[in-house]
Specification:
- The protein has 11 helices and 9 strands.
- The protein is an alpha/beta fold.
- It folds into 2 domains: about 160 residues, Rossmann fold, CATH 3.40.50; about 120 residues, no CATH class.
- The strands form 2 sheets. It has a 5-stranded parallel β-sheet.
- The longest helix has 24 residues.
- The protein is elongated and about 65 Å long.
């Protein structure tokens, strides 16, 4: 193996490729964005010949290359044939999240061709389907804060913790705001005693010790957690065996502020203890906050 790490960063436009390349550059990677795929073997050869101490390389590749992007699969096969070892990191996000990001930045999708952003996203998703299947790592950035994305990249790339290529997102939510569309597993915890009806806890969240202790000290909660965590721990290896790269476990209560938050934190902590790459997101935690 010539490089300690040779990472190809690709995926959906708007999913965070530039942000990830910035993370990797800060971590000491030599990063190049939007290099035409046909030039990648020459690039690899150049660095293999130099004694410059560079052993971590990240290349950003996306559909901005137009027709040149079609050369990517032939290029990857050529790299393998020449003995270069590399990993593909594919960044993805739900369509509605990508549309929102494009609207916020007022940028034009590279495949929209003057039309609707959603049409460009559909075209790009179809074009990248085979590449996504070939990726060693798939990160869904839809529910990740910038800090959480950095932690994820740090774990799977910098620390080289592959976690059987499975990343788990534990997502708390409120049923009154709708079930998250990207859920793989949905758990309803509205049967747990509700801190909302206790005046001193009503404006707090499941991140506050007072609320967390109230939720977790319930006999019902303790019994549920034991069975719940055992059940999920049983399921995960089967998802890994199936080849799943990203598992979204959604935990819902009425408003997504108290019970679901406390129990999601508990679940995420236990999954991390089991060695799984786990990120947590509280979708609705601030929606009932007083302005």
């Amino acid at each position: 193996m010539i490089y300690t790490q040779f990472i190809i960063v690709t995926g959906m436009s708007g999913a965070g490729k530039s942000t990830v390349l910035d993370f990797l550059e800060d971590a000491g990677f030599y990063c190049v964005d939007n290099l035409p795929p046909a030039l990648i073997p020459k690039f690899a050869e150049l660095f293999s010949m130099q004694r410059n101490g560079i052993k971590q390389v990240a290349l950003g590749i996306d559909v901005r290359g137009g027709k040149l992007f079609n050369d990517l699969f032939a290029t990857l096969d050529e790299l393998s044939a020449k003995g270069y070892e590399f990993s593909i990191l594919f960044l993805d996000a739900p369509d509605d999240v990508l549309v929102k990001r494009y609207k916020e930045t007022r940028r034009i999708h590279p495949l929209a061709m003057g039309g609707r952003v959603i049409s460009g996203i559909a075209t790009e998703r179809s074009a990248l389907q085979d590449l996504k299947q070939r990726a060693e790592f798939i990160v869904d950035t839809g529910n990740l804060l910038t800090r959480q994305l950095k932690e994820t990249i740090n774990d799977i790339i910098i620390k080289n913790n592959k976690f059987n290529s499975l990343i788990i997102t534990v997502l708390s939510f409120g049923f009154k705001y709708g079930i998250p569309d990207d859920s793989d597993l949905v758990f309803d915890v509205r049967f747990i005693p509700n801190p909302f009806y206790i005046p001193e806890m009503k404006e707090l969240t499941g991140l506050d010790p007072l609320v967390r202790n109230f939720v977790m000290e319930s006999e019902t909660s303790r019994a549920y957690c034991d069975k719940w965590i055992d059940f999920i721990a049983f399921l995960i290896p089967h998802y890994v065996e199936e080849g799943k790269n990203h598992l979204v476990i959604s935990v819902g209560c009425t408003g997504g502020k108290h019970r679901s938050v406390a129990l999601s934190e508990k679940l995420a902590t236990e999954l991390k203890k089991l060695g799984y790459m786990t990120v947590i997101n509280h979708r609705d935690i601030d929606k009932d906050a007083k302005k």
